[in-house]
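Narrative summary of target 7.
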Amino acid sequence: MMYLQLAWRNMWRSRRRTFITISSIFFAVLFAILMRVMMIGIFDKMIADTVSMSTGYIQVHHSGYWENKSIDSTFEENPRLLEMLNSNKHITAWNPHLESFALASSGERTKGILVTGIDPEKENLISRLSEKIQSGRYLGNKDSGILLAQGLAEYLNLMVNDTVVLLGQGYQGNMAAGKYCIRGIAKLPIPQMNKSMAWLPMQGSRDFLNTGARYTSLSLMVSDRTQVDAVKRYLLNQIKGMSPVSGSGRADGLDYEIMTWQEMLPELDQLFQAKMAQNVIMSGILYLVIAFGIFGTILMMLNERMHEFGILIAIGMKKRILAGIVVLELILMSLTGTFLGIAGAVPLVLYFRFHPIHMGGDWARTAEKFNFSPVLQPSVDFRHFIIQGYAVLSIAVVLSLYALVKINRLKTINALNS
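Modeled conformation, tokenized:
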């Protein structure tokens, strides 16, 4: 304890030197955190944007549906399944979909689109579709109209209150045809979807496709992306335990398939993994730069104090005790700089979380190629703050051990004359 007190007092004998050392660690921690949370935030948003508008983090559908996307591969509404979804604390929201491809026509223009039957309230909890309305209004549960994506509406030269004609194949080979008044136009953050999406209320979609009370899928959102695999295992176990449907002699779960977003969107997952590997390389380069910066600061501090060290050794202080106190000083400075760096990063990250940076130019064009919105919004997962702080602190502590080597090799005469 006495050595710790000596180290703390020595730190503040030269405030300028201490400030320089702590500042170097502070900025190292700050930059390491910002780089990490920005990179994670970009891909968190890209994944969240994509899954909220399409598959969900987890999707429940009829066995074999994902391979053929056929309207015939649907399943009946099952209260026991819905109750199971509501009972899991990690599932924050779920929404039913009834999807099918169709031709949208207006005048001489025709385009193949994806028509999705939705429960407007449940859909809005996940995709916040009502907030993306550019003109008109959002759908109601009993609405007889349709909602179009902005890019699709522009291609078909349609506006709110205009009529669009849909043609497609309904359930079990029936003809699907309908004319719908456009209630609203929504702008989606994912460019490809913005050119080819339309939404009908669930009952309107069932009438259009002649399916009755059936769904193509249930899309699930989870509280934490890292819990996806655990939730999938839970659902698989629960579905296997479902009792047979009354009078059918079979288990409900035999007709269900559960897939995660990585399984349904492997290209997105591969892109994420590749960028994370790239981020590891960039982090390594950053840590190398940080290490040189911190080492230069430590070297400067030790060289400035050579005369002081020479006097202390000359009057009888043992080198190992002196080296230990100096290392303690450096560790205390490292801890102070690390905590200040984390504390300084928190308000910055929170500010940019609530005021994201909207990019333009080449960045926006690149984002469009990969189908995500050109927005920089950092992650607020505190684990990244701790990991980056711990990494920089470890580098600083390891470099502090150089003081042991420097002082143990110190020649008293040379130090006194420095």
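The longest helix spans residues 15-53.
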